[in-house]
Structure formats: C-alpha cells, structure tokens
Design goal:
about 110 residues
C-alpha cells in the first residue's frame, strides 16, 4: 500500500491545521485580527506612529508644565507661611523687648 504524495499546498494546509489543533488542545485561543487604525484615518502607518509619538510628547510636556505650576504654587504657599511666621516672631520679640525694658527699669529703681 503506497501513500499518495501530497502537493506542497496540501502539506502546508495539513501542517497549518495540525498546528491549529495543537494550539486549541493547549488552550491557546485564536489570534485576533490585527488592528490597523491608520487605514481608518487614511494615512500611512509611519505617519500614524509619528503623529502618535508627537501627541504623546505634547501630553508629557503639558503634564510637566502642570506639575511645575503646582510645585511653584506650593513653594509660594510655603514662602507666604514663612513670611507670616517671621512677622509673628518679630512681634513677639518686640513684646519681649518691651517687657525686658520694663523689668530692667524695675531692677534699676529697686
């Protein structure tokens, strides 16, 4: 009994089916079809990726600018608080100086 020789196309088909059966048996699902969003926009793939990279860079710059503005605002708030604390300390020192002068006058008289 001789086996019929398969053509290259038939061998390729059988190999593809055998490989697919093995993948299904091992829990590997079918592949999703490739998404090609550049076709929907009517641009080339390289243009789509280039625009996407540019948009990503612009978003990162905007995020950096927002973070910088937030940091600047926080720094200014800290400086305002420090300025208020310095004013409070000066007022306390002035009150202490007045009290010290009063006590010195008491001791000088006594």
């Amino acid at each position: 009994m001789t086996r019929a020789r398969l053509t290259p196309d038939e061998r390729r088909t059988r190999a593809r089916l055998r490989s697919e059966r093995w993948r299904r048996a091992h829990g590997i699902g079918p592949r999703r079809p490739a998404e090609r969003p550049w076709l929907a926009l009517g641009v080339s793939r390289s243009t789509w990726y280039r625009r996407r990279a540019k948009a990503r860079e612009q978003a990162a710059q905007a995020a950096r600018a927002a973070a910088l503005a937030l940091a600047t605002a926080a720094r200014e708030a800290v400086l305002d608080r420090l300025q208020w604390q310095m004013a409070e300390l000066r007022a306390n020192l002035d009150r202490c100086a007045v009290a010290h002068a009063a006590m010195a006058a008491e001791f000088a008289c006594g």
